[in-house]
Design brief:
The chain is of the alpha/beta class. The protein has a single domain, classed as Vaccinia Virus protein VP39 (Rossmann fold, 3-Layer(aba) Sandwich). About 40% of the residues lie in helices and about 25% in strands. An 8-stranded mixed β-sheet has the order 3-2-1-4-5-8-6-7, with helices on both faces. The longest helix is centred in the N-terminal third of the chain and has 14 residues. It is globular and about 40 Å long. It starts with a helix and ends with a helix.
């Protein structure tokens, strides 16, 4: 995401987080979202990040961050340790086993926020159909040999996944090139954010 696009998306995500809650961000990068949550929602924040430079950037922001592999990090936490676990592009980029890690995230927290680039955006579809090439778009700006993405998924893929795993989608928001988009998001959205929980908790 570009800086402006990321800021707009973070504005929406921050509104989902209850003030004073506990938050764990997996693959927190330089800590931009966590820092805003601390400042604007007074959360108790914990980050997990594997990149040394990003860890130092978090520390400079005064954030509590652990240098650890995201796929292994959640084993150290008990059930319902946090109110929220956040994946801001990290499920797509750094998590090797997303199914297992998402299941663990819903064990250690009440709710999980997942943000990712939408591989089914119409520009991506058009590049595959017309050019026969791996797409390069605003939300997927890397060549195949230089991409940080390990997993490519669409909004429909993620909705189907939640249905198949008994996960409730409590909130969702989708962003196109001009901000929030509501019409046919699987076709028009560049990025998507979902707030999910276990189905029985959402219903209870």
């Amino acid at each position: 995401m570009t800086s402006d696009h990321g800021t707009i998306a973070h504005n929406a995500v921050i509104g989902w987080v209850e003030p004073g809650s506990s938050v764990l961000e997996l693959g927190c990068g330089a800590g931009d979202l966590l820092a805003r949550l601390v400042k604007e929602r007074s959360v108790k924040a914990q980050g997990i990040e594997i990149d040394d430079g990003a860890v130092f950037a978090c520390i400079e922001k005064g954030l509590n961050v652990l240098h650890e592999d995201v796929d292994e990090a959640l084993h150290d936490y008990g059930d319902q340790t946090f109110d929220y676990v956040i994946f801001d592009q990290s499920l797509q980029r750094v998590v090797r086993q997303p199914d297992l890690v998402l299941q663990e995230a819903l064990r250690v927290s009440r709710k999980v926020i997942v943000g990712f680039s939408n591989f089914a955006h119409y520009r991506a579809r058009g590049q595959i159909l017309l050019r026969g090439r791996t797409p390069v778009t605003r939300s997927l700006p890397f060549a195949w040999h230089d991409t940080p993405n390990l997993h490519f998924l669409s909004i429909c893929d993620f909705r189907d996944y939640c249905d198949s795993r008994g996960m409730a989608i409590e909130q969702s928001v989708f962003f196109g090139s001009k901000g929030i988009t509501r019409v046919a998001p699987n076709l028009t959205a560049l990025t998507a954010f979902f707030l999910i929980s276990k189905f029985y908790e959402a219903c209870g």
